[in-house]
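Translate sequence into C-alpha cells.
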Amino acid sequence: MNLEIFNGVMIFIVGLIFGSFYNVVGYRLPNNMSIVFPASHCTNCKHKLKFYELIPVISYIFLGGKCKVCKERISIFYPFFELLTGILFLLSYLKFGLTLEFLIAITFISVLIIISISDVKYFIIPDEVLIVGTLLIIVELIANVVVNNISVFNGLVMPILNGLGAFAILYLFKALGDLIFKTESLGGGDIKLLFFIGLVLGFDMSIVTIFIASFIALPLSIVSLIKNNNNILPFGPYLSVAATIIMLTGLNLNMILNFFTK
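Result follows.
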C-alpha cells in the first residue's frame, strides 16, 4: 500500500470517528447537555454503550439498527453522518493533500456537519459551534499567512470583511422576507452561519451559496407544504450542502460567468 492510499484510508477512518462525535455534539448542545458526560447511551433505556457498540457505522450494522438492550430503533441519521464525515474528510484530502488548506477544509466541514445535525433535529444552529469554528479558522488563516508569506490584509483581514459582507447581505434578505411574508423568514443562526461561510469561501461565493441552497431547498419546501401544509424547513443544512459543494469542486465566480457567457 503506497503512502497516499494509506493516508486516505486513515483520514477516512478518522472522519468516521469524528462523525460519531459530531452526532453527540449536534444532539447534546441544543439540549443544554454536556458533550462529555454522561457517557454515550441509548436515549430510550439509558443503557451505557459498550466499546463495540460505538464503532462508527459497523456497530449500527452489527446491532441491526437497534439498541442491544431495549431494541429501540436507532436513527439512520447516526451512521449517515458518520459515513458522510468520513467521505468528506477523504475528499478534502484528495483535493488539498496534507496542507493548511486541508486543515481549513476539514474544520469548515466539521462545523457544517454539526450545525446540520442540530438544525435538522431541533431547528437550532448552536452559537458555540460557530464561535469555536470561526476562531479555529482564524487561527488557521493566521498560520497560512505566516507559512505562505501572504499579506495580513489579503490572508486575514479580507476574509473577515468577506464574512461580514455575507452576514449583512443575508440579514437584508431576512429583513425583506420578514416584511413580505409577515413572519420570520430566516433564523438568526442562518445569518451567523453565512458569516462563517463568507470567511472561508469569500463574499462572492457566499452569495452563490445562498442561491444554490435555495435552489436545492425549493422543491423540498413545496413537497413539505403539499404534504404537511407546512413550509418550515431548516435552511442551515442546505447552506452547508451548497458551501461544501463549492469548496470541494473549486467552483468560483469566473467559472460561473464563463459558463453563462459561452
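Note: The CA atoms of residues 190 and 235 lie 7 Å apart.
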